[in-house]
Amino acid sequence: YHGLLSSHPDPDEMIETYEEVIRRWDRKDGMRVVFSTSAPQRCTDEYLMRGLKTALKYDLPMHTHILETRMQRATGPEFYGASIVKHIKDIGFLTDRLTIIHGVWMDEEDMRMIGEAGASVAHNPVSNLKLGSGIMPLRRMVQNNVNVVLGTDGMSSNDGYSMFETVKFAALLQKVMDADYKTWLDARSI
């Protein structure tokens, strides 16, 4: 699968498209353009690094989906010889501009690298439940100094964009992960 990326559009064409969108829409009417990729395993390293260069040039945030599924946990070593998080760190894509969407299947080392880089992880509890992806280890992320934000993902993986529902599920799911109520994050922390 990873080898098929060579048939994708030229990174120069993709970046030109981004730059046109940036010129037309970024910082207009309160909007921001975010450099986003579906997931690193669906992009070439060249494209990721061109994206980072573009994000730096235009002062853009970035996001990508990482470790949403068990399959991504298993294929990282196959594709890169390491976890996907380690790979994006090694190529320089893991920065404080990056928000990783999902992060359900991260291990302690992944969390440590993300915390050290100052990157964020978007917790999408309703989407993760709907897709059967798993439960993000919220408390462990916080313990590893990861900035965790809340998200809803897209309409194909969530039936709405309710942040109230997202906060509720984020609070409830941590209770399934650890029965010791003393470890639960309070509402203010969530």
Automatic annotation (TrEMBL):
Amidohydrolase-related domain ranges (all copies): 15-183
SUPFAM superfamilies named in the record: Metallo-dependent hydrolases
GO molecular function, one term: hydrolase activity
InterPro entries: Amidohydro-rel, Metal_Hydrolase, MTA/SAH_deaminase
Protein keywords: Hydrolase
Keyword rRNA processing: no
Name recorded for this polypeptide: Amidohydrolase family protein
